[in-house]
Amino acid sequence: MSFNSDASSPSTSASAADATTRDWIFPSYSFVHSPHNIHRTPRRRRFSSYQPPPQQFNSTASFQQRAAGNDSNTISSSVSRSRPGRFEFGNHEKSTTLLDGGIDGGGSAGVKSKSNEAVTSEKRGIKERKTTSSEETFLGVLRSWLRVRWPLTFTVAILIAVLSSLVHKNFSLHNEVTELQDRISKLNVKLKLCNLFDSIDIGGELSPQDVSVNNFSSKSLKIAALAFSITFLTLPFFLFKYVNYVSKSRRLFDNATEEISLNKQLAYRVDVFLSVTPYAKPLALLVATLLLICVGGLSLFGVTDGSLADSLWLSWTYVADSGNHANSEGLGPRLVSVSISFGGMLIFAMMLGLVSDAISEKFDSLRKGRSEVVEKNHTLILGWSNKLGSLLNQLAIANESMGGGIVVVMAERDKEDMELDIGKMEFDFRGTSVICRSGSPLILADLKKVSVSKARAIIVLADDGNADQSDARALRTVLSLTGVKEGLNGHIVVELSDLDNEVLVKLVGGDLVETVVAHDVIGRLMIQCARQPGLAQIWEDILGFENCEFYFKRWPKLDGMQFEDVLISFPEAIPCGVKVASHGGKIILNPEDTYVLQEGDEVLVIAEDDDSYAPSDLPMVWRGSLPKDELVHKSFEKILLCGWRRDMEDIITVLDAFLAEGSELWMFNEVAENERERKLGDGGLDTDRLVNIKLINREGNAVIRRHLESLPLESFDSILILADESVEDSAIQADSRSLATLLLIRDIQAKRLPYGEALVSQGSWMGEMQQASVKSVIISEILDPRTKNLLSMSKISDYVLSNELVSMALAMVAEDRQINNVLEELFAEEGNELHIRGANLYIREGEELSFYEILLRARQRREIVIGYRPADTGKAVINPSSKNERRKWSLKDVFVVIADKE
After folding, report:
1. Of 880, 837, 894, 827, the residue nearest 548 (C-alpha)
2. Nearest CA among 372, 493, 393, 517 for reference residue 438
3. Interatomic CA distance for residues 247 and 268, integer angstroms
4. pTM of the shown model
5. Pairwise pLDDT comparison (206 vs 613), residue with the higher score
6. Which helix (H) or strand (E) holds 409?
7. Residues 571, 19: Cα–Cα separation, whole Å
8. Is 586 exposed, middle or buried (CB count within 10 Å of its CB: 0-12, 13-18, 19+)?
9. Contacts of 749 (CB under 8 A, 6+ apart)
10. Rounded to whole angstroms, how far apart are CA atoms 670 and 62?
11. Beta-strand relationship, 864-869 and 848-850
12. Phi, psi of 715 (to 5 degrees)
């Protein structure tokens, strides 16, 4: 293309004519490329409202105008460019023609081509007129529609443009994400190849063929993972259907035989596994969690573009936190993530249930006493009876000097009930802790639970009820204790109900066992107390830990000293015997004065506590002489036994040994006379061989007054009211019966007093009973400690509290098993026993003596004085203090001594 810069400018008229003949202006090439052209921001084209007037097309004029205007194209184009451009549909082809003519041809070229273009212009004119008319018609309709609907059209156009841009942006972002994921997958493939083939240098990027192969293999793996997940999830359903099918098939073919179905067998196996395996439930929960994570990870791997490790980790996050699935995108990932989250909620609910059950079971085991006792050197009590309260009281008193101790109680009762009953006991535990456990002493696991091998003493209580069943259970308990593999550090104290069973228990337990026969102890105490009123209170003081009790201890400084000098060597204790080391630990009560203590010998004393006494220098004591060498002769006695005990033959045997010849023993109970002889014969007693007593049988009910009135109650020296065999299983009922019998007997005795003596009581029924009690001694066997207060306040009976005395004996033997040998000798028919002696045997009227001097005078009678009871008080003093201090004594005073049986 050429451009003539020297061409003259067209005239103003030519420019005006040209402007009137053209309906649009196009900038010339020189104006566009001129340095004076100012580039402006192109404006949006608008539809023009200008409508040119219709005129006849003149080809010659048009041609001349184009020829004349060739020289002025530059200026006219620059002027037309400076105007706002307008677009007209009707002049489109004309403008195209002018543009072609203005640019392709110069001034001379345009003149030469006039003749050739004339014919073409004619044809084109005809065609343009037809086109112009149709376009004008269409434009008219369009302009009228736009004038009416242009606001709506404009709004719709804006909305379409906004939506189109958003859709385009969404697709562009999706394409970018897809490209980034493809690049990440390629990089992952490269990283895996680098890890697997570390020694090989993988240079450059993977080829497109390798990338396509990796993509194909990755898709195959994802499809396989998804198929495996679906198959694994549907497998239990088909398995369940198969099991039901097999079970139904077996029932159809085997109607005659009662074979257990397959589904019941599987359910049984699962039940056994959950019951037998200790950690079955947590293990099942762990397996279910791992399966859910694995199956969920494979499913996520199949529906997402991530790796398998990432899918597994994402599956774990869905299981651990069900809210993490909210970030999932796409139908497949969302469906899988929701399923995993739902499974995670179930797993969490199962885990919460297991934890809650474990905590509840632990608290329940603690509440029911199933936990293990981690103690040593404690006292273990096996069983439960009405003697437990007194036993715990004595153990608490014994442990007070050590700041308290540990007592463990195991019985076949609920722990809460035991603790509630112990809490109701009205005594001070003095720092001793009582631990209750529920269990059976016949089960080794329960014995290990209470640390039986580390206990320093084990007490087996007799059950309340039948004596033979109670002793049989005690025997089985001893067998269980001897079967402990770890062995026992302490000894076993067994309470028995029948003396005949003592041999069996000692045969089974051997040297570990010490027995206390409750019925035998109570029976012998009742006999001793009936013959010597006030002895029951002395036994309570000696057996209980509240006052003075027996202790063994070795004192090397006393070796080589005679026992007579040992008696006055302890200001705070009274020696009673010696444990001889040279004779295998044999205990000698009340030894000879000339016995010399040897190395290893231990001294038996009565003291307040084991650390409250010690030997001192020998004091100067005046021996003196007895007022008169008087022997205590046995006198004829008349004794009444109300009630029937199962060890009646033992009581009769002991009474025959203690009483003087010619004494009478009356037996009053509801047992027929023939039945009495049979029972006594079954017990090994031959009534024809009795030496000192004569049996007189009377049949009747001890709680019926007319039956009691048939007896010469005022003539008896002692009356023993026994807990009848028919009601001994119930302590309250037995005590009620004994108390009713006691009141009836005292009332009958008071009515039969001489007239002069009855006036002294001044008509008071209590005074009459107390007056009658002076004439005879009544000993009541009391089982319930609550009845003790009634009898002690009324002062109408010298009572024996059987359960409390047995508990005291059990506690004392539990603290020191050697004491059992001392008690056995004191309760036996032969040997030494406790006696109450009158003061006239040791002192003269108005004589002032110290306790040491009386002690040495009593040695002339081969007796050991352990205490006294003043005439003006009813309470005995055991192991008095200030033994070397003199005081004035009365002949009405009595002394408590240990002496040989008379």
Report:
1. 880
2. 372
3. 15
4. 0.65
5. 613
6. strand 406-411
7. 155
8. exposed
9. 713, 714, 769, 772, 775, 776
10. 163
11. unpaired
12. -100, -5
Please name the helix (run of DSSP H) or strand (run of DSSP E) that holds residue 310, with its range, or none: helix 308-320
* pLDDT (average), residues 92-114: 40
Alpha carbons 732 and 739: distance in angstroms, whole number: 10
User: In this predicted model, what pLDDT tens digit does every residue of 333-377 receive, in sequence order?
Assistant: 888 888 888 888 888 888 888 888 888 887 877 777 778 898 999
CB 864 within 8 A of CB 629: no
Burial 512-540 (b: 16+ CB within 10 A, else e): bbbbbbbbbbbbbbbbbbbbbbbbbbbbb
> In the β-sheet with 877-878, what is the strand arrangement from edge to edge?
832-838, 894-900, 864-869, 877-878
The secondary structure of 774-824 as a DSSP string is HHSEEEEEE-STHHHHHHHHHT----EEHHHHHHHHHHHHHH-TTHHHHHH
User: Angle CA(65)–CA(67)–CA(71) in degrees, nearest 5?
Assistant: 105
Encoded tokens for 439: 């269990």
Phi and psi angles of residue 381, each rounded to the nearest 5 degrees, phi first? -115, 120
Polymer length in residues for the chain? 902
Q: Around Cβ 308, how many Cβ atoms within 10 Å?
A: 14
Q: What are the pLDDT digits (tens) for 106-151?
A: 444 443 444 455 556 666 666 666 556 666 676 666 566 556 566 6
The Cα–Cα gap between 671 and 644 comes to 8
Give the whole-angstrom CA distance, residue 405 versus residue 433.
6
- Residues 177-186: contacts with CB under 8 Å, at least 24 apart: 181/305, 185/214, 185/215, 185/218, 185/305, 186/211, 186/214
